[in-house]
Amino acid sequence: MSKLKDSTTKIALADDHVLLRSALATLVDGFGNCKVIFQVEDGSDLIEKIQEGQIPDIVLLDINMPKVDGYDAAIWIRDNRPEIHVLALTMYDAEANMIRLLQAGVKGFLKKDCHPSELRTAIQAIIQQGYYYSQSATGKLVNLFRNGSEAEIQKNMLSPEEITFLKFASTDMTYKEIAVEMRLNPRTVDNLRDHLFDKLDVKSRVGLAMYGIRKGIVRF
Predict the structure, then answer these.
(1) Residue 124 — φ and ψ, nearest 5°?
(2) Rounded to 5 degrees, what are φ and ψ at 42?
(3) Do 127 and 178 sit in the same domain of this protein?
(4) Whole-structure pTM value
(5) Which of 6, 134, 139, 172 is deepest in the core (most CB within 10 A)?
(6) Is 133 left (phi over 0), alpha (psi -120 to 50) or beta?
(7) Over the stretch 162-208, which tens digit does the pLDDT of each residue have?
(8) Pair (48, 86) in one structural domain
């Protein structure tokens, strides 16, 4: 690949939907000052490409992907290649998801149904300012921290361990199997379950699964 001009923003795409990814690449390349340098369908492939030395300026990152999802890929980039900006693409804009994305180090997030002009604006803002948050996203977060009680804010801030448990609890695995998978003793898993029942104000495992689905944490 020939060397890109200094003014060209190098973009990587990570999305497991081939048609969407292809259309997005065509759109981004059409911006003129952007160039898609590679496309992948999974977070593990993204990490591998970066480790091979293909370093984008911005990663347009789908959150829900198989194997390594967008959250884990963003965390890896945050911890290993912090100079790479991550712009998350998601169908879910609930406060819990946005907080998780911020914790993962993303520099902005867009809903997948946004207008192409907003995507272009977001890319430019991240290059020039280092971040981009839409008015809608900013409003949700401001209202959460301005009007939400401490309990409500904590409810939207799940730890990595809580998120992992929530995903496993939404499958047909037994709690004993979850304990083995998470390398925890069964009593710790029971305590984690009871803590989430109280924190999320649910009364059953089905309630946990429904919360995970509603917030975009669990995907079937």
Answers:
(1) -65, -40
(2) -155, 155
(3) no
(4) 0.67
(5) 134
(6) beta
(7) 888 988 998 889 999 999 999 999 999 999 999 999 888 888 888 88
(8) yes
